[in-house]
């Protein structure tokens, strides 16, 4: 990093998650970095041809900031991963839930959120089932934020769950609970609980590779979406 007067240069690992045009020639890019979400201005991008790598690509961005500027300016980029399959028109809507999650949790997400997102995008680019990826991506966000679920006993009353018991959900605790302690019921069926318990200590890639019926993983994903809504993000 170099500092001259009120100006500063730096470089960061980054994943491009959004870009939009401003005025007639410039673009604002939203990058996920290891420090959170970074909005970066690229001047004259539309006239000169953008220097930024393609959407969802990953690499290093070189930035320049002047004091009192709202945005850093993009000076250069070095692409390390270009996820071309995610740019397919048919994949655009599939990516929206993931982009919303990344934008929402970028600055409040768990340690390792950048690497988790990178692995998530790799899996999607490779053609992994988006429902499996979303269900397991969300679960690892919750765990990283300190909201790991207890699948053995109720965290509210400490009663041990029966193996075939249907669980409810306690909004204040952000956790599955027994029926008596639940705000919502039923939420988590026995098969869903067994699956989440089985994959909880796996890495994202390994968890996504675990065989599960499509109907079952769709139920798990619906459960994760409801949990996310209680956090304030609707996907």
Describe this structure in words.
By secondary structure, the protein is of the alpha+beta class. The chain has helices at 45-48, 92-105, 113-125, 130-144, 190-199, 204-208, 214-231; strands at 2-4, 7-22, 26-33, 36-42, 58-66, 72-81, 167-170, 175-177, 184-188. It is 34% helix and 28% strand. The strands form two sheets. The protein has a five-stranded mixed beta barrel. The radius of gyration is 21 Å and the shape is elongated.
Give a short overview.
This protein is an alpha+beta fold.
List the SSEs and their pairings:
Blueprint: E1 2-4, E2 7-22, E3 26-33, E4 36-42, H1 45-48, E5 58-66, E6 72-81, H2 92-105, H3 113-125, H4 130-144, E7 167-170, E8 175-177, E9 184-188, H5 190-199, H6 204-208, H7 214-231
Parallel strand pairs: 4-6
Antiparallel strand pairs: 1-2, 2-3, 2-5, 3-4, 5-6, 7-8, 7-9
Defining key terms:
235 residues; alpha+beta; OB fold (Dihydrolipoamide Acetyltransferase, E2P); de novo design (two linked rop proteins); 2 domains; 5-stranded mixed beta barrel; 3-stranded antiparallel sheet; 34% helix; 28% strand; elongated; disordered N terminus
Order of helices and strands: EEEEHEEHHHEEEHHH
State the distance separating the first and last CA atoms. 38 Å
Q: In which order are the strands of the major sheet placed? A: 2-3-4-6-5
Percent of residues in β-strands: 25-35%
Tally the helices: what do you get? 7
Overall structural class, as computed from helix and strand content, comes to alpha+beta
CATH T-level topology of the largest domain = de novo design (two linked rop proteins)
Number of domains: 2
CATH class of the largest domain equals Mainly Alpha
How many distinct beta strands?
9
Determine the fraction of residues in helical runs and give it as a percent range.
25-40%
Mean pLDDT equals 90
